[in-house]
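Q: Could you fold this chain for me?
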Amino acid sequence: MRSKPGSSAVTEGIRIEADAQFLPERSEPRQGLFLYAYRIRMANEGTQRARLRTRYWKILDAHNELREVRGPGVVGRYPDLAPGERFEYFSSCPLATRWGTMEGAFQFEREDGTPFEARVERFFLVPNAPPVLKPAMREA
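A: Sure. Below is the predicted structure, expressed as structure tokens.
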């Protein structure tokens, strides 16, 4: 049985699922550009509201070159998830090599101001991963 290139983890009631898809039509392998789209799905499976504040990514390419990315929110938004609510977004990651990995964390805050991190387990940026984008989204 083949393992899936995506990941899923639950931290303090917040489930984070991640997977990625290679975009050959937007990549330039001869110039060392391999573009991946990735999808993040987050769901509040806990009993308390949580609002996303920041993101942190650890991106590793096939040459073991590490790139770290930190920033506020995700795609310009700060999802505020009540118990049972979900949020999904798509973004992209350029790599200098044909494959790599991503992992990280989202900093959330409870209604009372208590911060916590929801981890994003390692997922793989590989050319043969199943599609995550609908055909119309690939052109955007």
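A (continued): The helical segments are 135-138.
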